[in-house]
Amino acid sequence: MTSDSYKILDNPVWHALQTVHKNFAFGADNIARYRPETLQILGCENPEKVDLNALRPWISTGEKLFMVGKLAAPAPGWTIGRKLDCIQMVCENAEKLIHKPIEEILTLTEDDRAEMLELINEVQPGYFYKDTPLLGSYFGIRKDKKLVAMAGERLRMTGFSEISAVATHPLHTGKGYAKMLVSHVAKNNMEAGIIPFLHFVNTNTRAGKVYELLGFKGRRVMPFWELIVES
Domain map of the chain by residue range? Predict the structure, then answer.
């Protein structure tokens, strides 16, 4: 793929909500959000020209949503909360992925949802919701019947799929579970002709090194802006 082929990753939420995740979208012609029970994220076609208040019919007062990439112009009743500077990485070559994991990787289903929420909220709370698993495929590793590691897909659009919810229980870190699971998700996508990408907070250098070992390459800094609807 050429560098131009990746341009849609500069505005991944909008393109996901216009394509693969269209059924999860609420909003107007040029601005949309995910259903609140799936993700608290919004996207718009042109952040520099959009009116955030066009999304008001689908937002509750006090809600916090993230905007990814360019920040929209200020609008009455909205304030900016946290800014998370993330690194966006893309994997084009499966050579460095783990092809023969030493652990059994299980496909997670609706029956696993409660455990998925418990695990992810223990490791990185606040970004995974009741229906987030509906956005893509999720996989996990169990020890003594307990879910101890997981990873899956979040933003999905034509030709691209974001690997997300990479989580390992604190008592099971350092065993390579994240590498195995990220490799599994990435390999599944690449075999289907889909390019895997991911984001991680730039202060998490350990995660970045793991992804580099698997063949992911940094593409750009991607800010995640928290927007708060106050009135």
Answer: 3-85+224-229, 88-222
Q: What is the pLDDT of residues 116-159, one digit of tens each?
A: 999 999 998 888 999 999 999 999 999 999 999 999 999 999 99
CA atoms of 105 and 137, how far apart (whole Å):
12
Torsion of Cα atoms, 207 then 3 then 157 then 131, to 10°: 20
Ranking 45-49, 169-173, 208-212 by mean pLDDT, the lowest is 45-49
The per-residue pLDDT for range 68-116, each reduced to its tens digit, is: 999 988 889 999 999 999 999 999 999 999 999 999 999 999 999 999 9
| Mean local confidence (pLDDT), 42-70 | 91
- Fold for the domain defined by 3-85+224-229: Aminopeptidase (3.40.630)
Q: For domain 88-222, which CATH number applies: 3.40.30.10, 2.40.50.140, 3.40.50.620, 3.40.630.30?
A: 3.40.630.30
The total of other beta-carbon atoms located within 10 Å of residue 108's CB is 20
> What does pTM read for this prediction?
0.94
CB of 178 closer than 8 Å to CB of 166: yes
Task: Give long-range contacts, CB 8 A cutoff, 24+ apart: 206-214.
Answer: 207/166, 207/178, 208/87, 208/89, 210/178, 210/179, 210/182, 211/89, 211/182, 212/89, 213/96, 213/179, 214/91, 214/96, 214/97, 214/98, 214/179, 214/182, 214/183, 214/186
Specify whether the CB–CB gap between 156 and 9 falls below 8 A. no
Phi, psi of 98 (to 5 degrees): -80, 115
